[in-house]
Design a protein that fits this description.
Immunoglobulin-like, 4 domains, 39 strands, disordered N terminus, mainly beta, single chain
Length: about 600
Amino acid sequence: MFRRRFSSFCVILYWVCAFRLGPPSVWAEPTLLWEPCPTGRSALLSEPHMEPSSPVRFSGLFLERLQRDLEVGDVLQIPLFDGRAGEWMISGLQHPGPGRSILRAALRGDRTADLQLAVRGFVGAGLFTFHDGERIFLEPGSGGLRLVRLNSDWSPACAAIRPPASSHMAQGEQPTPTLQGPEATNLVYVADVLVAYTSDARVGAGGAVGMAALIDLAEAQANDVLEASRTRLRIRVVHQTEIAYVESGNLNTDLTRLRDTNDGQLDVVHALRNTHQADLVCLFVERSDSNVAGIAYVMSPVQNSFRADAFSVVQRSPALAYHVFIHELGHNFGCHHDRAANASGGAFAYSHGHKFQAEFLDRHTVMALSPGRIVPQFSNPAITFKGVPTGIAAGQPNAADNALSIHNAAPTIAAFRMPAVTTTLPAAEIAFPTNGAAYYDGVSLTVTGAAVTGNGTPASVELRSSSLGSIGVRTNAPYSFSLNRLAVGQHDLRLKVTDGAGFTAHSPEVLITVSGTPPDIDPSASRFEPDGSFRVRVIGAAGQSFVLERSPDLAEWRPLTTNTLPGSAWDFSDAAMPAGVQRFYRITPR
């Protein structure tokens, strides 16, 4: 009688801890970002969206290194509230002009926490976001910089409205789009934006430099949202200016005056728009007499004549802390709120924001209204957040796909005032693992990918995940990243590539599943067949990859097949054996 022994074990992968993800540096110690400033102002308790804050000032070493040798992969020491401090690794850094910098960083030990920071000289504006929904805003003001913990229970209202009837053709049902999704091309359209601000807004921001830092952050934040949503549209602030205008305190009134060309109010804006050929115009004001923090005209249907209505007004303080700036531009793009707030009125039937639940919490995309915690992207059913789709496909009930809406409207938006400007985005792709792959609890993987740009070598390639945060950054090929001891659940992976001009793009998403147990051999279902062959049954979760090996002596192993489970079980037939021969089988998960 032949003996049959079955042996299975988990694949052993090397656990590589990469403590530095960027290029080497002579700076071994983290650089202090800022320090307390006892003479600065604190938050005004009358501001409903802000809680008491801490005055800060940038450290001299940070400002020196920012202009000299700070680079992707360097670490910042950032003290926050209650004596809490953390080390943040720089994942992106651009210098769009002299004395101007845009920086992104992720918190060590909690890679789902992000910082986006704009610096102008000694002044800056920034937003921290944490996985639990906490948000901290760095705001420039009359007393210097202040670090503000945002009130998570407060949410701004929006008063999106239809343009005056005389400025539009009658709305009709739009045809079904022929384009097959926002990621269909890496050619993007660029919409030029003129940003104006009142004297009161400038004073509120602590001066023209503080206002400029806020506008830099607004541009970066808007493009991050557009890119994360996989749209083929980006914005470019072509001019920013202070306007001598006495605010009404009512955003609807301010918007009407901004749009009108000959009412004696804000008329200079139209001359500036003509000079700079801006496709859209946004006005920052200081005051609003209600909970409304922004207002804009909604483009519906998509047509070039909407250029006469491509205006928005935002309240300075919450404009960036709560993504109000890109929300209002979204209305000019033809996007509308979630259906519960506005059942119709966008550019297309699917031009709606989306609300959903993830990890037992209410969430919403940038165009949807409260309640819920904001996910900084436009609705897109092809993108998941913590394993949950962030939209509903066009043609389905309650469709919500503002990313597709922007995709189809982008050529029109970018050509409101001049022939559309386009640029070629960089491109990236994850080579391993493959989409839909399944693994077991505690597995470690090496993610590999490729990236190209239209204007040279990528400046940086970052691996990101909504469940894992910023995993690492590479500034040189090969673009490989270690994922160690993955927890059970679904994990979305995507590469974010940045080119030398600061344009960014994401790779197609790869979704992997980690289950509680690895694939194994089922001895009870493995047996001899009538023809003398031996059937080996492999069990596990659909999508799990493995190598089935055989040995005559438990010393030398030979692979029989490499496969992926099509379901919960799969059978392999081994050829008939000569009499007196024993064989051993084992599974090595991949």
